[in-house]
Amino acid sequence: SLNDLYTAVACIDRLGGALAQAMNGRPQPAVHLGREGRPRLVTRPVTFAALLDSAFGPIRQSARDNVSVLVRLVDCLADLAELTDNPIARQALRRQATMVAATAKRAATLRPERAMVAGKLRRLRAALNGAPP
Questions:
Q1: Which residues partner with 41 through β-bridges?
Q2: 67 pLDDT higher than 90
Q3: What does each C-alpha distance from 78 to 31, 46, 83, 132 come to in angstroms?
Q4: Which residues contact 75 (CB under 8 A, 6 or more apart)?
Q5: Can you tell me the distance from the alpha carbon of 94 to that of 91, in angstroms, rounded to the nearest whole number?
Q6: Structural contact between residues 40 and 34, judged by C-beta atoms closer than 8 angstroms
Q7: Average pLDDT for residues 69-87, to the nearest whole number?
Q8: If we measure between CA atoms, which residue out of 6, 16, 12 comes closest to residue 48?
Q9: Element (H, E) at 4
Q10: Predicted pLDDT of residue 131
């Protein structure tokens, strides 16, 4: 429905903002020290790649027939790519972009949709390759 579309787009935008902060933030330490300086807690820090997959994977899978939502995912990935030169973040963005691109290409069945998706994917590829927007 129309409300679902707007809700999905709003969620993608909010997730994109949170992912931008996580992408450029400092990695969390795996070992947390106590007051004495000795290790007290060992954790497995959450990576940007894991956050990206958790945020966009379910949306991509649920929207496999919704070109508008998939296009917004492509735009958000391009926005994120334009914000970082971190090679690890770019690798995670490329991996997610490959999956979103394949899904969007399958969903775009009409000529105008295919043209729109192709244009958005060109921008995404340029952003991932470090080209100016």
A1: 32
A2: yes
A3: 33, 22, 9, 11
A4: 120, 123
A5: 5
A6: yes
A7: 95
A8: 16
A9: helix 2-24
A10: 61
